[in-house]
Amino acid sequence: MYKYLEEINVPLDYKTFENRARKLKKDKLQEMYLANKLINNYGDILRIDPAKLPDFDLFTYSFPCQDISVAGYQNGFNADSGTRSSLLWECCKIIETKKPKYLMMENVKNLIGCNHKKNFEKFLEYLESIGYKNTWGILNARNFGIPQNRERVFCISVLDHSIDFKFPEPVQLKKVLKDVLEENVEDSFYLKKGQVMDNEINQVVSYCLDANYWKGVTLQDFLAKHRRQLVTDKKNAEGKFMVRRLKPVETWRLMGCSDNDFYKASQLVSNTSLYKQAGNSIVVSVLEAVFRSLFSDKK
What we know:
alpha+beta
């Protein structure tokens, strides 16, 4: 098991980039091995030999957003820069070797911000140079049935230039933030040190979830920065609204995941990991809508 995990370079310490497989013991080692083996994870893209991959028609890809996100480091993603976000360019070897019919990329909205759009356009030019026709746009989860203000850049690339791909049209939002909240929440999720409100938090949609939601937020920062969603669902003895963090299951609902899938995942990973997975994911209903538009005429 150690050998297999080391070969695909999983799991990684993302601070030191050292492989952590040898630090796993017994059940954790077996769980990590099975989780990767059963899905046939090819592992670290830096180590993948594209020639050894099976043929496929659809390649979905993304890259770490830390160096382009508004909340991140802003180090950019120049090719060969060594930033996490520059891993995008590692996808080129797979695309060139396998030439899948369809490509789908997703990342944060700031990919087309003034500091990064030039590199994005350079990547699109590269795809065009090897035969792809690109269509990109910004899709928001709130326009696809999920009460979260989550704008993401999507890019669809096709080899068949006769395909006139168009992104799906928005649908009416029928669910609000309160609809995804649990009842009778444990005290541990409520903010301490007198962080209460005179009025309830009454938002229709959640602020955008991020992978650092697990770190928490103060009421002051939430109100000032409009991030890391907080909610109110009951009053204390003084009649003040008590403020709490979202539970992991609520963040998964805000990504369009079913409770059944959440509870399966929660058997194996911590709340911290569940929060990270939600913040790093693509909203299910958005992805489904994109694929329906792309493959609606396919049998």
